[in-house]
Each structure stands twice: as structure tokens, then as C-alpha cells.
Amino acid sequence: MKRVSTTFGTLISVLMLTLGLYLLKEGIANKTWLAPATLIMGAAFFALGFITLYFAIKSVLSHRARLGHVTAGRRLRKAVSSHNDRVRGRLADTKTCGEDVNR
Questions:
Q1: What would the pLDDT profile of 93-102 be if each residue is shown by its tens digit?
Q2: Distances in Å between the alpha carbon of 11 and those of 43, 71, 92?
Q3: Max CA-CA distance within the chain?
């Protein structure tokens, strides 16, 4: 579910960056009374595109980091579990060796 929103954020950021660049180009090229408004809108869309792209990349990296912690935790639990099993096995062996079996 998190990956869908990340993909959506990436697509929105690319769309906003493209629209912002287009509006900036049109605002510079045209010398009409709407040119300042077009420049302001282009700069706003371009900035919002960068902000959205930043958070989309941050989301992807944090998702990867969480997956890394989960897999590392699984490996650690497996290692601790196998170590505990070996220790318990040794303790069980020492108890049977030290006691009288014929009792």
C-alpha cells in the first residue's frame, strides 16, 4: 500500500516539474500582461514538484531502511534461536551425564 502512494507521489512530482518548466518558458517568451502571473505559477509548480519529489524519494529510502531492519531482525532472531537451542542441548546433556541414570 505504501508503494502505491510513493509511485503516485513520483508521478505527481514529474507532472508538476514539467508543468512548472513549461509555464516558466511561456512566461519568459510571452510579453503580455499575463507574463508575471505565468512566471509566478511556473515557479510555484516547479518548487512544489521538487518538494514532492524530495518526499517521494525520502519515502522510498525509509521503506528500504525499514525492510533492511526487518530482515536483519529475522536473521538475528534465527541466530539467537539456534544458539539457545544449542545451549539448551548442552545443558540437557550435562544434567543427564551428572545424574544417576538407573534411578
A1: 555 555 555 5
A2: 19, 29, 60
A3: 106
CA distances from 38 to 24, 28, 49, 52 (A): 7, 9, 16, 21
The string of pLDDT tens digits covering residues 27-74 is 999 888 888 999 999 999 999 999 999 988 888 888 777 776 656 555
| H helix runs in the chain, sequence order | 2-29, 35-98
Question: How many angstroms separate the CA atoms of 101 and 46, rounded?
Answer: 82
Q: Read off the C-alpha cell for 80.
A: 539467537
Cell of 39: 512566471
Locate 59 and state its grid cell: 519515502
15 touches 72 (CB < 8 A): no
